[in-house]
Amino acid sequence: MLLLRALAALLALPGMVAFVLPVWIGASGGHGAGRVIPAAALLTLGTTVLLWCIREFYVAGRGTLAPWDPPRHLVTSGPYRLSRNPMYLGVVVILAGWCVLWSSRTLIIYTALFMMGFHLRVLLVEEPWARRRFGGEWDAYRARVPRWVIWGGMT
Predict the structure, then answer these.
(1) Higher-pLDDT residue of 125, 68
(2) What residues does each domain of the chain span?
(3) pLDDT above 60: residue 51
(4) What is the C-alpha separation between 65 and 57, in angstroms, rounded?
(5) What is the 3-state secondary structure (H, E, C) of 88-130?
(6) Coil, helix or strand for 137?
(7) Cα 58 → chain centroid
(8) CB–CB of 104/26 below 8 Å?
(9) What is the pTM of this model?
(10) Fewer Cβ within 10 Å of end Cβ, the chain: N or C?
(11) What are the phi and psi torsion angles at 90 (to 5°)?
(12) How far apart (Å, rounded) are the C-alpha atoms in residues 155 and 151?
């Protein structure tokens, strides 16, 4: 049953944000042949990180990425050793792949808005929830792992 919930959450959340909507936005403009390989590399990297994170939530956390069915255990393994939010980073890399492929101004704005939204969600919803749910375990994890790996020590 947990596997079905995890698959449903994948399709409902990052499936829409990272695949369905960007394809719908970008596909109408066509793409340049020279951008296919770098775009495919970004799409592959982002998708790999996203799926790895979902696996960690399922296996180590015993939950899903969905806010209505979150992990029961704090996930600190896999890509979560490098960033507290690698799933969002994976989605951003996927979106960057679509931006490279289609070179769409609308898609670039879409990506920027989601990046801001992810950051605000992390600050205002997810981190306070994790602090309440996991207490000292969260505090220790937060002290040793950056929020966004690319921003280093920023809490």
Answers:
(1) 125
(2) 26-151
(3) yes
(4) 7
(5) HHHHHHHHHHHHHHHCCHHHHHHHHHHHHHHHHHHHHHHHHHH
(6) helix
(7) 15
(8) yes
(9) 0.91
(10) N
(11) -60, -45
(12) 9
